[in-house]
Amino acid sequence: MKFSDVAGHEEVKAALRRQADEGRLPHAVLLAGPSGIGKMRLARALAQYLHCSNRQGGDSCGVCPSCRQHESGNNPDMHYVYPVAKTQEREVSEDCIDLWRRMLEDYPYMPVEQWSELQEAGNKQLLINVKEAKKILESASLSPYKEDLKIYIIWLPEKMNTEAANKLLKLIEEPFEDTLFILVSNDSKLILPTIFSRTQPYNMKPLPIAELGHWLEKEEHTDQISAYEAARLGEGRIGAAIGILRGAEENKEFGEYFRGMMRMAYSRQVDGLKQFSDKTGSLNRPKLIRYLEYCTRMVRENFIYNLHKPALNLMTAEEGAFSRKFAPFIHSGNVERMAEEFDKAIRDVSGNANGKMVMFSLSLWLCQLIRTSRPT
After folding, report:
1. CB 108 within 8 A of CB 181
2. How far apart are CA 141 and CA 150, in angstroms?
3. Would you say 133 and 171 are in contact if contact means Cβ atoms under 8 Å apart?
4. What end-to-end distance do the CA atoms of the chain give, in Å?
5. pLDDT grade, residue 157 (50/70/90)?
6. What is the rounded distance in angstroms from the CA atom of residue 337 to the CA atom of residue 342?
7. What helix, strand, coil percent values describe the chain, rounded to 5?
8. Is residue 273 within 8 Å of residue 237, measured between CB atoms?
9. Which residues pair with 154 in a beta bridge?
10. Cα–Cα distance, 251 to 268 (Å, whole number)
11. Could you report the per-residue pLDDT of 180-202, keeping only the tens digit for each?
């Protein structure tokens, strides 16, 4: 991964590159910001740049032995640490290295829910535990295999439990001269303060809509309108925008489900809702959760629609056309409770509840909530 492969974030790239070139890079770097904006890609690019033996034009060369090992995921002095859903077979990062390589290859913008799904975690917590911390201490005490620097990329340090954090405190604060930590966080406020205070944070933000739209148009080989709409709906998050472009058919399917469900709920077609619940409840669990998350977003967008400020809405043209008539039924008298019911359904499905029963219960609540009178 080269800096040139990372979309946007030019100021952060320049700062990291300058510190690396001058030998002033902090011993623990924290790249923090919303999910899906390219933080892991930047962490990988920085690691490759540091190991590259023939840097050119402010970037790694991509062809030296170290770069080739980075590209293939086989550099012996590049270590990844990530949260694991503990089972009898899996407890630390190296126990699911094949899944991790698949994650980096297939889902480079690192959606946490996808990592959980790959591990078949269900309702198990993803954690970086004390056994992982002990392994880091053991490997950090050894000399680098071939590079001048051992690099540890820790993904989601906010998932590190207190025992593991306490074990790593001294190492992160006073690491060996040949050791560097790059922490990649989706929410730095959740990182234990004792760990956070020992890092140099770089706060990364979603890309400007126009910049991301231009990048999508070029890299995803799509038209300007689709690229800009995906950038806007993804709120500047690259991973979300790519997902929207590639998942356009699913998004369209979910839109049809949502509109049908709300129409039947308004007219209280219980038999139709029962059939609808059986159909959607039969979706595989991850897809049903994605549909419910889509519904939650649509409830929010329809509530915002009533403010009559189009710039605040993140909807496709088809979604907007439906909302022109539907939005008045989502108001301050029911929006919070409706959102709560969708959130509850997501939790229940995530906890392995019967999808058909969850959806029918939700549908009955919608019959009541959608007819709630607007407060005067």
Report:
1. no
2. 10
3. no
4. 57
5. very high
6. 9
7. 60, 10, 30
8. no
9. 81, 183
10. 25
11. 999 999 999 999 998 999 999 99
Q: What phi, psi does 315 have (nearest 5°)? A: -135, 155
Main-chain dihedrals φ then ψ at residue 57, nearest 5 degrees: 60, 35
Cα–Cα distance for residue pair 158/165, rounded to 1 Å: 10
**Tokens, residue 99:** 């899944």
Tokens of 155: 């993904």
| Residues contacting residue 176 through CB under 8 Å, at least 6 positions apart | 140, 141, 150
Distance (Å, rounded) from C-alpha 174 to C-alpha 17? 22
Task: Answer yes or no: are the C-beta atoms of 365 and 292 closer than 8 Å.
Answer: no
Question: Taking the CA atoms of the chain, what radius of gyration do you get in angstroms?
Answer: 23
Place 94 in a pLDDT band, splitting at 50, 70 and 90. very high
Which residues are within 8 A (CB) of 103 and not within 5 positions of it... i.e. 6 or more apart? Answer: 110, 114, 115, 118
Instruction: Flag whether the pTM goes above 0.85.
Output: no
- pLDDT tens, position by position, 274-294: 999 999 999 988 889 989 999
Contact status, residue 373 vs residue 329, Cβ threshold 8 Å: no
Q: Give the pLDDT band of residue 327 (cuts 50, 70, 90).
A: very high
> If you average pLDDT over residues 55-71, what whole number do you get?
93
What is the spatial distance between Cα 88 and Cα 92, in angstroms, rounded to a whole number?
11
